[in-house]
Amino acid sequence: MEPKVMIILGSASDFNVAEKAIDILEILEISYDVRVASAHRTHEKVKKIVEESTANGVEVFIGIAGLSAHLPGIIAANTHKPVVGVPVSVKLGGLDALFATVQMPVGAPVATVGIDRGENGAILASQIIGIHDSDVRTKLSKMRNEFFFKIKKDEAKLAEKLTGAYYNRHSFEIDDLECSNQNNIDDYNDPEYPEVAVIAGSYSDIKVAKKTIKFLEKMGIKYDSTVISPIRHPKKFEKYMEDTSSVKLYIAISGLSAHVTGAVVAFTEKPVIGVPCAIKLSGMDALFSMVNMPPGVPVATLGIDSGGNAALLAAEMLGLGDVTIKNALKSFKDNMNCS
């Protein structure tokens, strides 16, 4: 049986980051392969691995590299399957690798996670596979519940250390809550429901959102779109997440502190694509806020203002289980290459 996930390392020294990804895939019982190939030193090897893996049924690639981390981009250039990029901290705190991974041109999106976040790379890859695999969705949900219970245990341990005379522990109703995220497995195949929800954090993000929608329409992907802030309108935001709980994935577009993506992943276990917008600081604030998510809640972060790539990445994800979308995506990419 061919692996579902292909992990490619730019160097054997990146294996400590890959191990985090491997541990997650083992827990979720998802088949994988691991290869070492450099985008610069063994370019043809990378190309051959990607092309053969694409033809033989690999569903998601994970590219792990540091320094001038062009590996995920070279993978994306040679496949129509989703590519997850994990930048590695070798120099400059990993910022060189982060920028090389995330700032891809239109046509070759790389779903980037935080620096050294191999576990989030694997969780994101699993979420992508889970779009069309209910068994993987169920296992992911169970794992997310385990993250939730770990936090509860950590809080209990902390309470034992608080011995101040004025410490007064209050009992809340939330103390007995279970993890509240729902998978909505039975709703995935509803033909009447949009496949993607596009959420802009404010009207200043509309320009990028319109580009995303334009590309979705070109590939025949059904979508819902809204402008809503989880900070200014938290109850309205929560209601929107409830109303769109049956979509297959979310695209969140936001500048500044980019709380939209963080709010979306708090409400769903489905893939979340994040597009940072250049409102202030050339979009660096939004980029760092989106990509540096804690373990268990990845955001598939794209380059600043990369609305087109968000739609293409969504098509790559959906195309794994939908031949019509896959063919539309391949045709669209071919036309882009010709022009």
Query: Strand pairing plus helix content: what structural class?
Result: alpha/beta
SSE sequence, one letter per element: EHEHEHEHEHHEHEHEHEHEHH
Provide the gyration radius in Å: 20 Å
Low-confidence stretches: none
Order of strands in the sheet with most strands: 2-1-3-4-5
Looking at the overall shape, the CATH architecture of the largest domain is 3-Layer(aba) Sandwich
Average of per-residue pLDDT values: 91
Number of structural units classed as domains: 2
What proportion strand? 5-15%
Q: What is the CATH third-level topology name of the largest domain?
A: Rossmann fold
- Give the termini distance in whole angstroms: 38 Å
- Work out the helicity level: 40-55%
Keywords for this structure?
five-stranded parallel β-sheet, single chain, 339 residues, alpha/beta, globular, Rossmann fold, 2 domains
Describe this structure in words.
With 339 residues, the protein is α/β, with parallel strands linked by helices. The chain has two domains: 5-130, 3-Layer(aba) Sandwich (Rossmann fold); 187-338, Rossmann fold. 45% of the residues lie in helices and 15% in strands. The protein has helices at 15-28, 43-55, 71-77, 95-102, 118-130, 134-161, 206-218, 234-243, 259-267, 284-291, 307-319, 323-338; strands at 5-9, 32-36, 60-66, 83-88, 111-112, 196-200, 223-227, 249-255, 272-277, 300-301. The chain has a five-stranded parallel beta sheet, sandwiched between helices. Strands 7-6-8-9-10 form a five-stranded parallel beta sheet, sandwiched between helices. Helix 5 runs antiparallel to helix 6 and helix 7 (206-218) packs parallel to helix 11 (307-319). The radius of gyration is 20 Å and the shape is globular. The model has no long low-confidence stretch (mean pLDDT 91).
